[in-house]
Amino acid sequence: MLVSRFYGSLIRHGFCNSFKRTSRLYYSSKEHTNNNTGSPRLKDELDEDQSSHTRGKKLKPSKTNFLVLDPSQTGLLKRRNTPSYFRSNNGKRLSILEGVELGADSNTRNSRRSRHSTKILQEIESQRKKLLVFKSSVSKEQAVRSIDYQKPSTTTMSRRRYDQLKHLLDSAYTLPQLRAYTKKYYGIAHSKTTKDILIEMIVFDYWNCEPNDFMDESEDLILERIINVDIRDMYLLLLTNNGKILNNFSRIGATLAVALDENIMIVRGTSAIIKYVEVSLSNILANVNTMTINLKKFMSDHSARNQIMSDAKMSELISLIQRESAVFFELMGPEPGDDIYRISAFGHKRVSKAQNLLLWGAQYHPQLLERVEQLGTNEQDVNSFERFPFTDIGCLDWANRNKEWYRLQKPISKKNAPYITTVDYKKTIATDEKLDKWYDFLMYQKKEAHIMPLKLDEAPKKIFSMTLGQLLTTINGNDTLFESRIPQVMTKLLELPLYDSLSSKDELYAMDQHDYYVQLNFIPNLSNVPNADENVPPIELWFELDEYDVAVTNSVRCITQLQQKSLFLQIPQQPRDLKINVDTVAELTETYEEGLENWLSRQPGIRKFLHDSRLTFQSRKNLVIPESMDVNLHHIDGEKSCIQYDYVNAVYHRILRLKYMDKYLVQFSDIKGGSSGANHTQVDFVGGELLNRDDFKKFVKDISLFV
């Protein structure tokens, strides 16, 4: 979404050069001149006389020195960091469920383990492929503390417990960790002592443990307990923060293993540790938040008319949401067709996130019309093209990261060619005949989307633009995605001048030339739309961000996409593809300057949404975004409707405006969608509003020559 047509440049204040003047010097030494002649005595007298007149005096330097610093050298211009809400941690995310299919039945099942067996560990080993065993990966300091936790509270113990304690130290800790423990707690490193001898010294000499052959072994042995956990609680324990709850239990000395197909958890530890684990699990599972939802109706109310999601895609979407938001979907009805689900999670925020992801996964875009064109190819070229995998999934959103994407490219062999041939980009520029067809598609072809015609105070704006990127497809070609991340163009892009003229070069360094916005996306709940055959366009709220990453409320612009056409130009001979866009957009509210006291008086639902919101994106704790807002839409036939719009997601924009060919606006955006959204850069060339056929042709040809 382009914001250039809705926001002017922010007023920037000048910055004066900073000067640093060198410190004056103070002298108290004697000065000698080569012109002094005569006897040594006379010379000494002259020197003594001059010294008496200058000692301790401040002498004016012969030349005043100034050090002039550029504004960038003063350190006053600091890089503005991305708000914490939009920072992505995908690169650091590890999954304990790697390779585990949620809800999938195992095809190969071993014989069911007897729950009355006294040799649990041997059976755990035999079923290792069916278990997820939690181990603690800790630093040396944590290992040292963990060793001290193993110190028994009583010195007298059974012979079996004594041997068990030594075996625990031998199997759970390394020799350097044991030496670090004795050095920290007893001041001796035992650098030349073997592991067996050191363990014996720790248990017998340092801990003063004494085995008693007459003590009952059941009182102090490490025990094993089987805990029955239902499938919902099992998945929540595994999904939430990648199993952090179970890993925390391992840090207190418990060994845990879970059997997914049998819904049991095996806990190994002392009786006190096992009791602690049981009580903690009971308290944790008692705080599960749930929400009941008719999933089929919910998705139908938030999907375009006659575009209901299939059962296979719905099942895939549920699986993705379970992983992304750590929730569990449980079918409540006796029959699969009932579609009543209970969504469960630890905490209300995770349940709300799952609901947002359902709205996101609905892919409500009734206004969107797309087409793919392959440019500058012949039959020989087509046969030489190959699909290359796209591996930078960090720039994709949560719904697309799970798919395998490919880009069609023309491979170049370095072995057969003495040099790498360069592509003649002029041959990839479309002919006038093709440009005419593209213009007709973008201007005149309509999509039977049955979008509600709106009565607006101002006529909609039709904006032409072109975006650089790469056209990606799945291996079967069913899904298409245009990824706008193009790192190769960065150097040439930053050579362009700024779009807004500056009074001096110093302002380029003294002021941040970027504009910062946050975009809130909403889709309608079609259940309260009067006409059952009509769709309602989605809505976006755009805010300016201040220096503290707080949305400026009175800067809000309510924008709706009435029509959006995209023409993908696939160019396998080049490192990038193109997308031509024509966006028909309209504003549903007046600006604050236009409304003043009556601002948003005709949209009380939006005003209430702003009043109930706390859009502080630097801190997640203080952020409050209501789940929905009511918007008044005025039908072109005079009927007014109050439509509920549900919040989907937020996107952060850091925008730099440049100029190309001294006439085209270039919008260079750094876009952050947070942990679930896409995080990438985007380059948009804005051609203007309502271009005629000749202007459109010139615009496309000019931008095609940029790279």
Automatic annotation (TrEMBL):
<dbReference type="Pfam" id="PF14611">
    <property type="entry name" value="KH_SLS1_1"/>
</dbReference>
<dbReference type="Pfam" id="PF20776">
    <property type="entry name" value="SLS1_N"/>
</dbReference>
<feature type="domain" description="SLS1 N-terminal">
    <location>
        <begin position="136"/>
        <end position="210"/>
    </location>
</feature>
<dbReference type="InterPro" id="IPR032741">
    <property type="entry name" value="Sls1_KH-1"/>
</dbReference>
<feature type="region of interest" description="Disordered">
    <location>
        <begin position="30"/>
        <end position="63"/>
    </location>
</feature>
<dbReference type="InterPro" id="IPR048400">
    <property type="entry name" value="SLS1_N"/>
</dbReference>
<dbReference type="Pfam" id="PF20778">
    <property type="entry name" value="SLS1_C"/>
</dbReference>
<feature type="domain" description="SLS1 C-terminal">
    <location>
        <begin position="395"/>
        <end position="704"/>
    </location>
</feature>
<dbReference type="InterPro" id="IPR048401">
    <property type="entry name" value="SLS1_C"/>
</dbReference>
<dbReference type="GO" id="GO:0005743">
    <property type="term" value="C:mitochondrial inner membrane"/>
</dbReference>
<feature type="domain" description="SLS1 first KH">
    <location>
        <begin position="227"/>
        <end position="288"/>
    </location>
</feature>
<protein>
    <submittedName>
        <fullName>Uncharacterized protein</fullName>
    </submittedName>
</protein>
